[in-house]
Amino acid sequence: MLELFYKRRSIRKFTDTPIEAEKLERILQAALLAPSSKSVYPCEFILVDKKEINEKLSTCKPHGASFLRNTAYSIIVAGDTNKSDVWIEDCAIAATFIQLQAEQEGLGTCWIQIRKREYNEEQSATSYIRKILKMPTNLQVLAIIAVGYKDGEKTGRDETHLKKEKIHRNQF
Ligand SMILES: Cc1cc2nc3c(=O)[nH]c(=O)nc-3n(C[C@H](O)[C@H](O)[C@H](O)COP(=O)(O)O)c2cc1C
Q1: Total number of domains in the chain
Q2: Does 170 map to a domain?
Q3: Which listed site, 48, 86, 110, 122, has its alpha carbon 20 to 30 Å from 155?
Q4: How far is the CA of 170 from the centre of ligand 1 (A)?
Q5: If you measure from the C-alpha of residue 36 to the centroid of ligand 1, how many angstroms do you get, rounded to a whole number?
Q6: For the Nitroreductase domain, which residue ranges apply (predicted)?
Q7: Other C-beta atoms lying within 10 Å of the C-beta of residue 21
């Protein structure tokens, strides 16, 4: 597991190689296996495997999403605000499970932050995405996880990356 954590990097350039259905299936299983406060499971996942839809999603905010234009697969992670007051936490864990299972499958991912991001001065990124994906207003989008075969390898982390001063024992 730790080896996988050292290896994982954010990938924003993908090849055109299609992702095998079994791999996508296992990634989505990982999402559904994430823990959930009070076992409420407020997260909803939308797999987008149409390039033209990802292209539309790529303009959901001014910065940090444009690479979706050239991405074939993404998973929208959204929470039902009527079901849980901690949907953010639940969705963040599920999104992380998606990223880690994808890495395990030999794929790359990148988290695209949506919550608290704006499409423009009048509209949130979430509301822009809701219209494209026909989502009800009780769903808030936490993030889009771009997924695909990596176009080039990024160097994994090593121990020099670890900010060990952030670990405290018994008191801060
Ligand atoms: C909460 C969160 C939001 C992020 N939002 C974006 C984003 O909107 N666009 C993007 O390209 N990367 C985004 N990232 C990826 C970070 O930039 C990346 O994780 C960070 O630079 C560390 O690099 P690494 O993932 O390769 O270790 C986000 C990551 C997290 C955890």
Answers
A1: 1
A2: no
A3: 48
A4: 30
A5: 23
A6: 7-57, 71-149
A7: 9
